[in-house]
Batch of 2 targets.
Target 1
Amino acid sequence: MALQQLTQTLLPAIEEELQRVVATCRQPGLEDMYAILAYHMGWQGQGAGPEARGKRIRPMLVLLTAQAAGGSWQTALPAAAAVELIHNFSLVHDDIQDQSPLRRGRPTVWTQWGVAQAINAGDALYTLAFLALRPLPQAISTERTLRACSVLAETCLLLTQGQYLDLAYEARGDLHVEAYWPMVSGKTSALLAACGALGALSAQAEEAVIDAYRRFGSLVGIAFQVLDDLLGIWGDAALTGKSAESDLLSGKKSLPVLYGLARNGPFAERWKQGGVTATEVSALAAQLEAEGGRAFTQDWARRYTGQALQALEEAQPQGEAGAALRELADLLLKRQA
Amino acid sequence: MALQQLTQTLLPAIEEELQRVVATCRQPGLEDMYAILAYHMGWQGQGAGPEARGKRIRPMLVLLTAQAAGGSWQTALPAAAAVELIHNFSLVHDDIQDQSPLRRGRPTVWTQWGVAQAINAGDALYTLAFLALRPLPQAISTERTLRACSVLAETCLLLTQGQYLDLAYEARGDLHVEAYWPMVSGKTSALLAACGALGALSAQAEEAVIDAYRRFGSLVGIAFQVLDDLLGIWGDAALTGKSAESDLLSGKKSLPVLYGLARNGPFAERWKQGGVTATEVSALAAQLEAEGGRAFTQDWARRYTGQALQALEEAQPQGEAGAALRELADLLLKRQA
C-alpha cells in the first residue's frame, strides 16, 4: 500500500532524473548516439514505454532507503540515477556477451546497431553513472560525495569480477557449490548493496545505519538470486510455460544444478551428457528434487531472506518509506515456487 | 636531455603505481581475471616487457605537468595511473570494435580470451581508473579530488562520443572536413587535455595554470593526430614500408582523405571506387598531394602545434620538468613526413 503510493511519486522522478543525465549526450552531431541510449532506456524507438524500462527496482531502493533513513528522497536522486545507469550499462554489455537477441521484449542494442556501437553505448552509460553524481555536493558534504563515488567504483569492480566468474563458469565442468557465492555476490548482490549504502549515505545517516542498509541490499540480492534459481527450475513458467524459461534447458549453472552435480547421482549423469530437451525438463526437475536439490535451494533462499529482513530491522526504517521498503523486500523475496 | 633523465625515474614509478592499482583484482579465485589485465598491460604472458607496455606518454605528461606546475610528481601518481588505465580500457574495447588481431605486436585480448571476456576486461580497467584516484585525498583537498573525478568522467564521455563518431563515419560516404574535428577531439585530444588538467590539479595550481595545461594537452592531442594522419599517407613507412602502414589501404577517413573527398577531383574518384591496392598507394598519395591534400594537412599540423606550444608557454612550466615537457612536446609534434 505504502509502496504503491510512493511508487506513483518516485517512478516519474526517477525517470526525469535519468533523462536529465542521459541528455548530457544529446549534442549537435550526436543525436544518433543519444538515440541508442534512449532506445535502451526504453524512452524511444519501437516498443518504448514502461514495459521497456524495467521495474527500476534499484533506484526505488535508493530513494526509499534515503527517506526511511531520515533523509529526503529528492537528495538521493543523483545516486538513484547512478545505480540504474550502472545496471543498464551492465545489461547492454551482458547482452553482447550472452548473444541475447531480446531484452525486455525488444531487440537488444547489439542486434540493432552492431557489437561495436553496443560496446560503446554501454561504456557511455557507465560514464553517465559517474556524471549522475555531480549534483550530490549541493546536498551533502564533499567527503560524503567522494565516498559515494568510491562506493560506485568499488561496486563496479565487484560487478566485473562477478561477470568474469559467470563467463568463466560456462566453460567449466568441475564447479562446486562454493563457486556459486562469489559469482552471485558480484553479479546480483553488489549493486543492491550499493543501493542501500548510497541511499543511507545521501540521507547523511550514521555509520551503523549505512552499514545495515548496505547489508540489507546485499542479502536481498543474494536471496533474490537464489529464489530466481529456484523458480528457474520449479517455477510455473519453467515447468509448464515456454520451455525456454527453464534453466535446465539453457544449461545455466544455477545453485540447484551445482548441488545436483556435487551429488553425482542420476541428475548429474544426465546433465553431463548435455542436450536436455523440452520433453525431459519436467522429469529432470523431479529427479533433481528427489535428490534434494529443491529443498537445498529453498533452505538457502529462506536463510538469506531471514538475514535480509533482520538487517532491514537493524536499520530501523522510518515512516511510510520504511513500510514501503518492507513491502518491497516482501515482493522480491516471497515469490513462490 | 631533461626528459631522458626524468623518464628513468618516472617510468618505473608509473609502472609500480599501475601494478598497485591493477593488483586490486588479484584475489583468490580471480587469478585468471588478473592475468588478462596483466597481459594487456604488458606485464605477463608471451611478449611481456617494455615493448608491450607502450610508451606511457599520458601518465608521463601528468607527472611532468604536476612537477612543472610547482607540485611534486609523486602527488600526481594516482591521476597518472588513472589516465593510463582509461587509455588501456579504450584500447581493449577499440581492438574488439576494429577486430584488430594485434596490439603492440601481440595478440589482442579478444583474440586470446574471446569477445565476452575482453569486453569485461575493458570494463574492469575502466573501473580501476576511478579506483586509482582513491589515494588522492591524502595529498590534495577533497574538493580537488572530487574535481579530478569529474574531469575523469567528463573525459570518458568525450571519449565515447569520439568513438561513436569514428564508428559511425566508417559507414558514411558524405563526410565533410568539418566532421573530422569533433571526432579527433574525443578520440585523441580529450584524454591528453585531462592529463594536463589532472597534473596541474594534483599540483594545486591556480585556475589559469590548470586551464593552460588543459589547453596544451588538448592542442597537443589534435596536432599529434593531424601529424599522424600526414605520416599515415606520406610518412616513410606508408610510402615505402609495409603496405599495411598506409591509411590509403586501410580506408581510414583521415584529414587528408576528407580534404581530397571534398575536392572531388581524380583522388576522390579513385577513392570512392574502393579496393585501393598496394601498388597504387604511392601514385595515389602523389595525386592527393598534387590536389593540395598534403599542404592542407601540414598547415593544420603547424597551426595546432603552434597553438599547443603557445599554451605551454602560458602555463609557464618550471624547472627540469618544464624543460622535459617542452622536449616531450617537440618529440610528439616535430615528427617529419
Target 2
Amino acid sequence: MNFLEERIQKDGIVKEGNVLKVDSFLNHQMDIDLFKQMGEEWKRRFADAPINKILTIEASGIGIACVVSEYFHAPVVFAKKSKSINIEGDMYITEVESFTHKCKNQVIVSKKFLNPEDHVLIIDDFLANGCALQGLISIVQQSGATLEGIGIAIEKGFQSGGRVIRNLGYHLESLAIVDAMDAQTGKITFREQ
Amino acid sequence: MNFLEERIQKDGIVKEGNVLKVDSFLNHQMDIDLFKQMGEEWKRRFADAPINKILTIEASGIGIACVVSEYFHAPVVFAKKSKSINIEGDMYITEVESFTHKCKNQVIVSKKFLNPEDHVLIIDDFLANGCALQGLISIVQQSGATLEGIGIAIEKGFQSGGRVIRNLGYHLESLAIVDAMDAQTGKITFREQ
C-alpha cells in the first residue's frame, strides 16, 4: 500500500451506499503534509510533461491543487460552479451533473486563464462517474490547450469514470483506486498498481 | 507599498460599483508564490500566537489557507456553504448573507474538526461588509476554541467589516486595505499601515 492508501485505510470511513468519508484529512479538514506527498508523487508520475498550469474545480479540489502546484511551479485555475446565467465576460462554459446534490451546475473558467499555449494538469480529489472531470476536460478542449494529464487522489474503481477516461487515451494517475468497500466490516480493497 | 499592494496596483482592475477584480492572481487563477509571501508575512504578524488550526470558507479562501498553513504547520478546515437542511452528523451551523449572489447560505463545519483545545487562525481572501467573517467567528465561538487572529488578503476599508471586527477586539491583519478606488482612472488608494 502507498501512503494515501494507508491513510484511507486508517482514517477513511465506509458508509452504506458506497460512500467513503475522508473528511478528516482530504475534503473538509485537510492534511497539508499529505497533500505535499501527493504533489511529490504526481511530480514523479508526470515527470516528463511540460505542465505550466493546473486546473481544478471548486471546492475540495482547490486545496490539493494549490499545494501540489508547488511541485510544478505552475499557477492554479479553479473552475467555478455557477447557477447564474448572467456571466460577465468571456467564459468557457460546460454543464456538470452533481449526484451528491442532485442538480446541474454550470461550470465556468475565464478565457483569460486558459489558451492554446497552455499545458494543463487537471487535479481533483475524487473520481467516480466522472461527470466533473468530463466537464474539466471539455473546458481544456474548448481552450485549445494541451491536456498533459489528470491526477486524482481517490478513484472509485467500481464506477465507470476512470475506465472511460483511460479508454479515451488520457494519462490518468489516481493515487488510490478503491475496487470494493464493505460498510459492514469497514474493509476497503485497493487495486494493485 | 508592500508586495500585495504592488500586485493589486499592477494586476487588479477597478470596476464600477466599487468592484475590485483580482481574478488573475487571487481568486480564480491563483499565484502560489504570492500565497507563500502572504504566509510568510502572516507568520511574522502572528508570530507569538499558538495557532494549531486554520479555518477558512469555500471557495476562494481554500487555496490561500492551504499554502499559508505550511508556515504554521497546522491543518486547514474549510467551512462549507450548504443550502440543504438535511445535514448529516453533528455540525456547527451559521447563516451567511452573500451580497454577490444575493442569497443566504448555511455555513457548516463538522464538530469533529473544531474543539475547545484549538487555537484558530481564520484566513480569507476578502473582507468587505464582513458577513462571511462574522459567520466564521460564530463557528469558532460555538466550538469553544480560541480565536488567535484573522488574516485577510484584501480589506475594503471603505466598508464597515474591518472596523467592526477591530472594535470587537479581534486581532485582524489585512495585508492590503483599500481605502478608495476610482473606476474612471483605475486609481487605488491604500491605507498606510
